[in-house]
Design a protein that fits this description.
With about 400 residues, the protein is an alpha/beta fold. It folds into two domains: about 130 residues, Aspartate Aminotransferase, domain 1 (Alpha-Beta Complex); about 240 residues, Aspartate Aminotransferase, domain 2 (3-Layer(aba) Sandwich), CATH 3.40.640. It has 13 helices and 15 strands. A seven-stranded mixed β-sheet has the order 4-10-9-8-7-5-6, sandwiched between helices. A four-stranded mixed β-sheet has the order 1-2-3-13. Helix 9 links the parallel strand 7 and strand 8. Helix 3 runs antiparallel to helix 10, helix 4 packs parallel to helix 10 and helix 11 runs parallel beside helix 13. The protein is globular, with a radius of gyration of 21 Å. Homodimer. Keywords: Amino-acid biosynthesis, Aminotransferase, Arginine biosynthesis, Cytoplasm, Pyridoxal phosphate, Transferase. One of its GO terms (molecular function) is pyridoxal phosphate binding. One of its GO terms (cellular component) is cytoplasm. It comes from Candidatus Methylomirabilis limnetica.
């Protein structure tokens, strides 16, 4: 056990398992290095947050420039980076209003608050939100209640009321669950933490139709899927629909903590004093997010996610043909997963880590790939070689 691991175990609350066991000290592009200088190809990317990789010049320069001007101001005043980012995101999303916060969980909390106020104003006080089993919407108490994973909920009962769950990709179950107290449906366009579960082609359109029929709000959690990761700026675009409320985060800041809650004019019913955040929308993070988002658009990283993601998927399918233990390859763009026939996800991730590849296991049987959007086919080739060797060892 090295010095840093000893200090971590002494001082840090035991909220995470540090499953890969490495201590990182430096990053550049799609690669990181540990305290003894070992290099790793990073296909976790801060759980999809490092959209431009590590220490990208666009991010470093934006941090430097803005930190010399203004880092934080209260919401009692206007700041230009916040307004610039608001204009950029509303234009790119087709939604009307935005609120900035610090994390995806906070954005989803805000979305539920907004939906509940909408229910009070327009739906006779309806307040319940329906979400999907195997979903993930954050770690706050209310978002644990919204998340469709009983194992995350059990230690914290009683949970806040007002949430119910149905199977993902099942419109009939949603229809059956909608009642007089329902104000909104909350979904990920593709479930990330749940195992990279991609719905059928018409699912989101049918959910949109259901919300329109019953006067409900459709909330789409694009915290992991947004900002180009799945091959379009927003994952829901392939369905030809628009949400009433959308949450974004992770890749928006390229590794800097920022998230956003966006809503159309119908849903944007917050008034003065209804919501707030001390650090939300601070000039420093907004300036970085503006630089990151503009770079994603200018360099067509959505298109790169399609091209490199398609190549990555083909290589993974090659592994499926080679190894019986690979049960399924799924995902879209640069949010991909492989599922094994045995509960070997954690062992596979550790074996890959030993060989210089960082992957995110979803035990017991799935590994998720969320590399930076700037990876190359050569990076994919390197990852496949390592993964192939790990499978040969573990199978």
């Amino acid at each position: 056990m090295n010095h840093w691991v000893e200090l971590d175990k002494r001082y840090f609350m035991d909220t995470g398992h540090r499953r890969l066991g490495v201590t990182l000290v430096r990053g550049e592009g799609a690669r990181v290095w540990d305290e003894v200088g070992k290099e790793y190809l990073d296909f976790i990317a801060g759980w999809a947050a490092c959209s431009l990789g590590h220490c990208h010049p666009v991010i470093v320069e934006a941090l430097r420039e803005q930190s010399e001007r203004l880092i934080l101001a209260s919401l009692d005043v206007y700041t230009t980076p916040q307004i610039e980012l608001a204009e950029l995101l509303t234009s790119a999303s087709g939604l009307a209003k935005v609120f900035f916060c610090n994390s995806g969980a906070e954005a989803n909390e805000g979305a539920v608050k907004l939906a509940r106020k909408y229910g009070k104003l327009h739906l006779n006080g309806a307040y319940e939100v329906i979400s999907a089993l195997k979903s993930f919407h954050g770690r706050t108490l209310a978002m644990v209640a919204a998340t469709g994973k009983p194992e995350y909920q059990a230690p914290f009962t009683p949970l806040p009321e007002g949430f119910s769950h149905v199977p993902f990709n099942d419109v009939a179950a949603l229809r059956a669950a909608v009642g007089e107290r329902t104000c909104a449906i909350l979904l990920e366009p593709i479930q990330g933490e749940g195992g990279v579960n991609v719905p059928t082609e018409n699912y989101l359109k049918e959910v949109r139709d259901l919300c329109d029929e019953r006067g409900l709000l459709l909330i789409l959690d694009e915290v992991q899927t947004g900002c180009g990761r799945t091959g379009t700026l927003w994952a829901h675009e392939v369905s030809g629909i628009k949400p009433d409320i959308m949450t974004v985060g992770k890749g928006l800041g390229g590794g800097i903590p920022i998230a956003a809650l966006l809503a159309n004019d119908r849903a944007a019913c917050f008034g003065p004093g209804d919501h707030g955040s001390t650090f939300g929308g601070n000039p420093l993070c907004c300036a970085v997010a503006t630089a990151v988002f503009r770079f994603i658009v200018k360099e067509d990283l959505s298109g790169s996610a399609v091209r490199v993601g398609s190549y990555f998927r083909e290589r993974l399918l090659g592994l499926q043909e080679e190894w019986d233990i690979v049960k399924e390859v799924r995902g879209r763009g640069l949010l991909l997963a492989i599922e094994f026939t045995k509960p070997v996800a954690l062992a596979m991730a550790k074996a890959c880590c030993e060989r210089g590849l960082l992957l995110s296991p979803i035990p017991p049987q799935t590994i998720r790939f969320m590399p930076p959007l700037i990876i190359s086919p050569q990076d994919v080739d390197q990852a496949i070689v390592i993964l192939d060797a790990a499978i040969a060892q573990i199978k």
